[in-house]
Write a structure and sequence with these properties.
Elements lengths: L4 E3 L2 E3 L5 E6 L8 E8 L6 E6 L6 E3 L7 E6 L4 E6 L8 E9 L12 E2 L3 E5 L2
Parallel strand pairs: 2-11
Antiparallel strand pairs: 1-3, 3-8, 4-5, 4-9, 5-6, 7-8, 9-10, 9-11
Length: about 120
């Protein structure tokens, strides 16, 4: 059972930046596609950024394109979500999820393993 642990959330002012981390210590993360999803209060969970398992191709939701960057450091078994120019509408709980040999799809049901989430609040 793959366990994912997110960190890096917090309170930031509009226009600020945060970097989220998603780490596993049990298995080699490079075999997994990583998806970053978020859920704001009263809203459905939505996918924001994705990176595939093999060629590390990336994909982004339109709402974050140009502001968020997903990456991975396989040597550290860690994936990252760099979030710049944050807006109040980015406020949500952010989750990372893993899909074995995945292509980095935005389809939530393809991801078998989920972290516990980390809160991101963008407010002045």
């Amino acid at each position: 059972q793959l366990q994912l642990v997110e960190s890096g959330g917090g309170l930031v002012q509009p226009g600020g930046s945060l970097r989220l981390s998603c780490k596993t210590s049990q298995y080699t993360l490079e075999y997994y596609a990583i998806g970053w999803f978020r859920q704001a209060p009263g809203k459905k969970r939505e996918g924001v950024s994705f990176i595939s398992s093999l060629d590390e191709s990336t994909n982004y939701a339109d709402s974050v394109k140009g502001r968020f960057t997903v990456s991975r450091d396989n040597a550290k078994n860690t994936a990252y979500l760099q979030m710049n120019n944050l807006k109040p509408e980015d406020t949500a709980i952010y989750y990372c999820a893993a899909d074995l040999w995945g292509t980095g799809t935005s389809v939530e049901s393809e991801y078998d393993y989920w972290g516990q989430g980390t809160q991101v609040t963008v407010s002045s």
